[in-house]
Amino acid sequence: MTTPAYGLVGIGDNVVDHYLDQGVYYPGGNALNVAVLARRFGLQDTAYIGIIGNDEEGAHVHASLLSEGLSDAGLRVAMGETGKAKVTLQDGDRVFLGSNKGGLRKRLTLRLDEDDLELIARLGHVHSSCFSYVEHELPRIAKTAQRLSFDFSALRDAAYFAQVCPYVTTAFLSGSDLEEEAALELIRHIHALGPAQVCVTQGERGALFSDGTHVVRQGIMPAQVVDTMGAGDAFIAGWLAATIGGTDAFAALPLAASAAARACGWPAAFGYPHPAF
Fold this sequence. Notes:
The protein has 277 residues and is α/β, with parallel strands linked by helices. It has a single domain (8-275), classed as UDP-N-acetylmuramoyl-L-alanine:D-glutamate ligase. It is 31% helix and 25% strand. It is built from 8 helices and 14 strands. The strands form 2 sheets. The protein has a 9-stranded mixed β-sheet, sandwiched between helices. The chain has a 5-stranded mixed β-sheet with strand order 7-6-2-3-14. A hairpin with a 2-residue loop joins strand 6 and strand 7. Helix 1 packs across helix 7. The longest helix has 14 residues, at 231-244. It is globular and about 50 Å long. The N and C termini lie far apart (54 Å). It comes from Pseudotabrizicola alkalilacus.
């Protein structure tokens, strides 16, 4: 019998979000955000594995990771450009204007070593995303981890779903554009490919969550909106922090919604502005 583990490893994407309207950039990226925010929301044993460039932006991502109390043992530094996204704010909502597609991460393959696998086995839970370029490692991750959550964002690629879903325990998808029945059909499709739990986040309409038997809608919580950049990742992080800590999957949904509301109250995904020259 496997002993339950109570930690989380974020594996994959990191970027800096360059706010052109403010002349600053912030650390971000789904896998990094979820690891950092899960710790903020009460999960003490969290870690991040990924690649940064040897540029100023990479150094800032590194520093912010340490400031949040995460180890840098799984961080690789390579010669090249850190992932960058250009964004602006319109009435508190994020608007993406373009990116360098992950920078060096799109041409350098992240290879997990024995230390990484030991970390995954110890903490037990992994989160990654469709922006992470780690599809080749999913079989090993799924074999080693007790649970793998994966953010597909707004992706609707059937071939990609078929490739990734068999390794995933909990699938998160963005579906603000979907009507109710379309979201439910997407949930059914993802379940059929393997994930035991599927969550479709829908912005101001909250989120639909399914365990394969029951589907519930979780509404949003009141928020003092500074920036919505990190809300979706905070929802995931809040849910993971709660469920890894022992909370039932459905009971964790209000906690996830509260986490998303909290994240709307600080700039970018988790703060740390840096002047962009």
